[in-house]
Amino acid sequence: MQTSIQNYRSLFVGTDTLVPLLDGSTTRYINFDNAASTPPMKAVQQAVNDFLPYYSSVHRGTGYKSQLSTHMYEEARRITLKFVGADERHHTCIFGKNTTEAVNKLARRFPFTPEKDVVLTSAMEHHSNDLPWRAHANVVHIGLHPDGRLNLADFEARLAEYAGRVALVALTGGSNVTGFINPIHDLAEQAHLAGAMFMADCAQLAPHRAVEMLALDDPRHLDFVVLSAHKLYAPFGTGALIGRRDVFERGDPDVVGGGVVEIVTLDDVIWAGPPDRDEAGSPNHVGAIALAAAESALMEIGMDAVAAHEAELSAYALTRLAEVPGIRIFGDTNPANAAARLGVIPFQLAEVDHFKVASILGHEFGIGVRNGCFCAHPLILHLLGVDEAEAARVRDEMMHNKRDNMPGLIRASFGLYNTTEDVDRLIEALQAIAAGKYRGQYRQDVASGEFHPEGWVPNFEQYFSIHKRE
Description:
Blueprint: E1 18-20, E2 26-28, E3 30-31, H1 42-51, H2 64-83, E4 91-96, H3 99-109, E5 118-122, H4 131-134, E6 138-142, H5 152-161, E7 166-172, H6 184-193, E8 197-201, E9 224-228, E10 239-244, H7 245-248, E11 261-264, E12 269-271, H8 285-301, H9 303-321, E13 327-329, E14 344-349, H10 354-365, E15 367-368, E16 370-372, H11 377-384, H12 388-399, E17 409-413, H13 420-434, E18 442-444, E19 451-453
Parallel strand pairs: 3-15, 5-6, 5-7, 7-8, 8-9
Antiparallel strand pairs: 1-2, 4-10, 9-10, 11-12, 13-14, 14-17, 16-17, 18-19
Helix pairs in contact: 1-8, 2-8, 8-9, 9-13, 10-13
């Protein structure tokens, strides 16, 4: 199949890295686990390297390095606001560790009341956009269609059922399992009409599509957005919560200590304004600068170009995956619809355990994928049609440290640097696995469910060591 897809590999670190295989040879590593974490862009690596000589404390330092560090940290905040179309007059950007921490912070800081105490989320969410709400509100899950797509009729029904009580609708912008993209602006408009605010989990969406929060007087605006740098080609440990300034001007911070106050006496405290109020302690400003460098690079490329690359790559992959004997692809399998989905493709291979497929791909073909439930257990059980009795059996086995029969899928997820040649290697590998043409003898660890080839003892320090090499 011919394709005109653009090659962005030269913009990234590690795309030509060789890794060892079971037969003793080495091969260029192919990462199809981008929905979990992405490699850094060279622009990010360069920005961090250029900044490190000036690294110093941020906020209130009088030395030049401290002033520069503070300036660049705040510049990173402005770039992140721009990246999601936020207005710094009405929005604030709070940096933290990752999307998970961002959602937890919002769950603790959101102004729930006894009268408005319901959060609507869905059964397609990553656990990070489900579990945090359970400790602070009454969580109601919107149903799904059999293919994993959000049931919009059920969304409307739930809004009506809990009329007046829904404080927040919190939904993913794009599924980390099926790649389905939710119409977040349409859903936000319905939420606002029902008197609720709207949060979009953009951990998966932001690296692949433009995110626009819109003005607060636009009925389709997003009140809150969360994202992670490690999914945005900046793996230096930062996440961002971008949201309404008026919400974070109220209430006590959920984490207290240095940096969150204006003044403290032995009897009283006056909290700082946003975002300082919600960034206790010394921040990870290297991570924030890395995130901003990635966002700047993506904006320079253009998010429309990013989306077009992914759509063409996804269409190519869906077409070629259909050639693999015994494969079952979940979600939307039509290559013609690739532009309306993310490059996240879950599948099964007949008669071969998902744990084993992933292990063989890594050990014998140098291809990294992910398998299992992808921190979205309810969605995986839904897609696989696992009934309550079977789910209870699986849960009981896992509670007894037995995961060898755990249901799951294999997931290939694309980044901007992936190419059709990468997809071709995946297809060749899957066809070989389907035909039983692999050399290793694999044994399963019952406690983890993972398969390991007999006799494989990797020497990681041959490839990387924290200690200085002589």
